[in-house]
Amino acid sequence: MRKRDLHILTSSIHTYTGDGRFSVHHPENSDDWDLQIEYVQRRDSGIYECQVNTEPKINMRVELHVEDAQAAITGPTEVFVKKGSTISLTCSVNVHSNPPSSVLWYHGSSKVDFDSPRGGISLETEKTEAGTTSKLLITKALLSDSGNYTCQPSNASPAFTIVHVLNGEHPAAMQTSRGDLQSHLMLLTSFSSILVLVSR
């Protein structure tokens, strides 16, 4: 029974709802009665109650929480690669019962063109019991390949990451340079303070 509207969904092996997504399964020679909901939706969230007509009556409540499926891109939200190297982005969609019919990739607002004259762009898609994985590969990265990349499954919320193609030093080196500059400024400030104290 669905507690929200007190709707009796099933009784024994019979179903009492016009929603064909609901069914009950009772394995032979078993005391188990399993309520199944296919293609579950957020509106299916709520409390469901199983009742056994004994004396005294036995019942058990189960609260179902349904969340929107969410894609996820492996790794940090910002990726740094050197010009000429390979960009590899992996998107995972953990939807088991209803895998996405398609997973699209966008660079900025434009769909990634695998037939682009640029060449070197490919896609690897794998569907398993654990979910769907889509890997975007871009070889010989160009500076123009920088930007926001979005993974958009047909039945899940999108995920994105930002790619920076570098023509010069590595980001770690840039961070070190900035750190060294801050250290030099602090040292210069301290030295100036000493000079002021000595002059007084």
From TrEMBL:
GO terms for cellular component: neuron projection membrane. PROSITE patterns: IG_LIKE (PS50835). Pfam families: Ig_3 (PF13927), V-set (PF07686). Residues 56-163 form the Ig-like domain. GO terms for biological process: synapse organization. It comes from the Eukaryota. This is Zwei Ig domain protein zig-8. It comes from Agrilus planipennis. The lineage of its organism: Eukaryota, Metazoa, Ecdysozoa, Arthropoda, Hexapoda. The gene is LOC108735697.
